[in-house]
Automatic annotation (TrEMBL), chain A:
Protein name: Multiple sugar transport system substrate-binding protein
Transmembrane segments: none
UniProt organism field: Deinococcus humi
Alphabetical UniProt keywords: Signal, Sugar transport, Transport
Signal peptide location: 1-20
Xref: Pfam families: SBP_bac_1
Keyword Transport: yes
Automatic annotation (TrEMBL), chain B:
Localization (cell): Cell membrane
Membrane-spanning ranges: 36-59, 92-114, 126-149, 224-244, 256-277, 289-309
Origin species: Deinococcus humi
Span of domain ABC transmembrane type-1: 90-305
Record-level GO BP terms: transmembrane transport
Keywords: Cell membrane, Membrane, Sugar transport, Transmembrane, Transmembrane helix, Transport
UniProt family annotation: Belongs to the binding-protein-dependent transport system permease family.
Protein name (database record): Multiple sugar transport system permease protein
Transmembrane helix listed as a keyword: yes
PANTHER family tied to this protein: ABC TRANSPORTER PERMEASE PROTEIN, INNER MEMBRANE ABC TRANSPORTER PERMEASE PROTEIN YCJO
Protein biosynthesis keyword on record: no
Membrane-topology annotation of the record: Multi-pass membrane protein
Pfam entry (one): BPD_transp_1
């Protein structure tokens, strides 16, 4: 085994000195559908750097992040470029295994202004290390069925004027068409708890690690109250996301609206409900709320072998306008790069949305989205609060009591 | 002719030479059994020891090896504290275990008896069919059941709608979710238990049954007075396997309901909770501590099972 390795090394060295340019393989670990974006730009990369081979290792979403966790824990089997999804970037930022891109030789501080502001904050740790470059974002909007609203005689503006008018519209829709307002009441909680945060606030913790969840926090009380109201009025279809019922509701038009990232339009068009082309429209979230759904990043592990080329590749993926636009057109990955967002492509209508100029709306939403502080205990808090919300919705538990219990449980776990 | 005895001052050279026979006798057994021990050391003993070590530490795997902080019994105290999810998950696990385990044995035992008594001719065919769920991939099973349980599109609710019953939220109502999961577990392991009981039944001598027939015993009497008492060792074995398996339930609820264990974590079993804490919340120490507590719970339940079996039957 050693002999083979030695032979390989010697022949590699010989080959290196023989040809003028070194041959390097850069390993990139990613998850679906980010791998589609990478594959889309590979031809351009190979043309530019014929000697630098990109080896793409794609695993399922959870498998990828588990594998990366294990690799960082042991320092073994690390890729040169590590893709991270928004749900993980906060946790990985607090760890110690990724390069701080603020420092030399990366000096990424100068590039931060090129990106949508909130996404840069997401990849910054609490001690101000910048651990990953953003590549795509998920500007949050309200997607609605225009045909259902027309049938019910509801003005789309009523859906997002206020939460109260949203619920009122839901009652009309239910009465006139029989369609539900939203897939599940939990979604209302999701939006209300994620929007209109004060500066220095995260969803569950503030920037000083103080827990915000509790019976005295107006944001959570309102989120729970509105969700309960929607459930009590029978306006939600009680359908979980990513279920067969969810896809079916999109196809049949039995659910009138859906809060989501811009990417959902692409998913609807490509596989969820292609036959509903032209029936959908998007608008901003209720009460001028702005939030992001999703987003992807690239990081470099400290123990990576080819950091120099890893960084070149990341820059190519994230800061090259042409590549960002390729990923957007082929994979629907909304660019994090501001110059890419200013391309002509964005002023064109989206056929699936009845030629609505939705991209401009998404771009505007992305720029207005405030940075949200992430905390390493966010996933703990998220699980506990959602369980308590279910208790409220399904068992009729008192809201103040549920939030009191949630607070106590999170405080125990957040050590 | 007598051979020359070598002088003690100069030991024979042959002895030091490599001999195939000596290798066969002395080293080969160790060499050939070594893969198991090497694999066990790496994948069995080391993780076990490491998780015991981690149970007393606070460790985020993203910090890398070595960056752990000793916290003593804190992880155990955290898990055993009154409102902790660990207790909730343990209750859920035991509940689903009972919901799926008790019917499994109540059905498997008489079924095995009937097959053994009346359906001898088709026994191998029936056994194969009953064993299929056990060897089928859990993911495939769970996806199929997911479609059966589907609220608006599922076969189960379609059947109910034919008799005028409204759609039942099998996978959303917190009270029903454990039942749905238990159904999958039941379906998957009932055949396995039938096979266990069948093999136990076949160890019972025909003579005993024949004697009973001569004495005029009917099938019910044979079942209660011959089969059940003589099947005790196999029942003990099958019960123990069910307890251990059900307490570690993971695949079925995980695939059927997702990482969070469904609506409000209604089917969040202990194994799933441990997985979430370790790999989603990245709190390896707390996860390890709970894994050891789960081990303790399984150990206690197995001991109770052992006690009940040795007490109730007057084991000789």
């Amino acid at each position: 085994m050693k002999k083979i390795a030695l032979f390989a090394l010697v022949s590699a060295l010989l080959a290196g000195s023989a040809s003028a340019q070194e041959k390097v393989t850069v390993t990139v670990a990613a998850f679906p559908s980010l791998d589609t974006s990478i594959k889309a730009v590979l031809p351009a990369w190979n043309k530019l750097h014929p000697n630098i081979t990109i080896k793409l290792v794609a695993q399922e979403f959870a498998d990828h992040h588990n594998a990366m966790t294990t690799a960082l824990a042991t320092g073994q089997g690390l890729p040169d470029v590590m893709a991270l999804e928004i749900g993980y970037v906060g946790k990985f930022a607090e760890g110690k295994g990724l390069e701080d891109l603020n420092k030399a030789p990366y000096n990424a501080t100068q590039y931060k202004k090129l990106f949508t502001p909130f996404t840069v904050a997401q990849a910054t740790s609490s001690d101000k290390r910048f651990i990953a470059m953003p590549t795509d974002i998920g500007p949050g909007t309200l997607l609605y069925r225009k045909d259902v609203l027309d049938k019910a005689g509801v003005d789309p503006a009523q859906l997002n004027k206020s939460w109260e008018s949203y619920i009122a519209a839901g009652k009309t829709i239910k009465a006139k068409t029989g369609a539900s307002l939203i897939n599940t009441a939990q979604s209302i909680y999701g939006v209300v708890s994620r929007t209109n945060l004060k500066p220095g606030e995260g969803i569950y913790f503030d920037s000083k690690n103080n827990l915000l969840v509790g019976p005295d926090n107006a944001r959570f009380v309102r989120a729970f109250t509105l969700a309960k109201q929607v459930r009590a009025e029978g306006l939600d279809a009680k359908i979980g996301e990513w279920s067969n019922e969810w896809y079916d509701a999109f196809k049949q038009g039995t659910v009138a609206s859906q809060f989501s990232g811009a990417w959902l339009t692409g998913a609807l068009e490509s596989w969820m409900a292609p036959d509903t082309k032209g029936m959908w429209r998007v608008e901003n979230l209720p009460e001028g709320g702005y939030a992001s759904w999703g987003g992807s990043f690239y990081a470099i592990p400290t123990a990576a072998k080819n950091k120099q080329w890893a960084w070149e590749f990341i820059k190519f993926m994230t800061m090259d306008k042409a590549q960002q636009l390729t990923a957007f057109t082929i994979n629907g990955a909304f660019p994090a790069l501001l110059t890419a967002q200013n391309d002509n492509l964005f002023s064109q209508g989206v056929a699936f949305l009845g030629n609505q100029k939705a991209r401009v709306l998404w771009r505007d939403a992305a720029r207005k989205t405030q940075p949200i502080d992430v905390n390493k205990y966010d996933s703990v808090a998220d699980q506990i609060v959602n369980t308590e919300l279910t208790n409220v919705l399904e068992q009729g538990k008192d809201i103040k009591q549920a939030l009191t219990d949630a607070r106590a449980q999170i405080l125990r776990r957040a050590r | 002719m007598q051979e020359r005895v070598p002088l003690p001052t100069s030991p024979p050279r042959q002895r030091r030479r490599w001999s195939y026979n000596r290798f066969q006798q002395r080293a080969a057994p160790y060499l050939f059994t070594s893969p198991f021990f090497i694999l066990f050391l790496i994948f069995g003993l080391f993780p076990l020891g490491f998780s015991l070590f981690l149970a007393f530490h606070l460790w985020n795997p993203l910090d890398g090896l070595g960056n752990w902080e000793y916290v003593g019994w804190d992880n155990f105290k955290l898990a055993l504290g009154a409102p902790d999810q660990f207790w909730v998950s343990l209750k859920i696990t035991v509940w689903i275990g009972l919901l799926s385990g008790v019917p499994q044995h109540l059905v498997a035992l008489p079924l095995a008896f009937v097959i053994n008594q009346a359906l001898r001719r088709w026994q191998s065919g029936i056994s194969t069919i009953l064993f299929l769920p056990y060897i089928t991939n859990a993911v495939a099973i769970t996806i199929v059941f997911g479609m059966l349980f589907s609220e608006n599109l599922g076969l189960l609710n379609y059947g109910l709608s034919l008799v005028g019953l409204g759609p039942v939220r099998w996978l959303a109502l917190p009270e029903l979710v454990p039942v749905s999961v238990a159904t999958v577990v039941f379906w998957r392991y009932v055949g396995w238990n039938v096979i266990l009981y069948l093999s136990g039944l076949q160890a019972i001598s025909e003579d005993v049954y024949e004697a009973a027939t001569v004495d005029g015993a009917n099938n019910v009497q044979k079942f209660f007075y011959i089969t059940l008492p003589l099947l005790r060792p196999m029942m003990f074995y099958a019960f123990t396997l069910t307890i251990v398996g059900n307490m570690q339930l993971f695949e079925e609820p995980f695939i059927l309901l997702g990482q969070a264990g469904g609506s409000g974590g209604a089917a969040l079993t202990s194994a799933m909770h441990i997985f979430n804490v370790a790999f989603r919340d990245l709190d390896m120490g707390y996860g390890s501590a709970m894994a050891w507590l789960l081990f303790l719970a399984i150990f206690i339940l197995s001991m109770i099972n052992n006690y009940l079996f040795s007490r109730g039957g007057g084991r000789s």
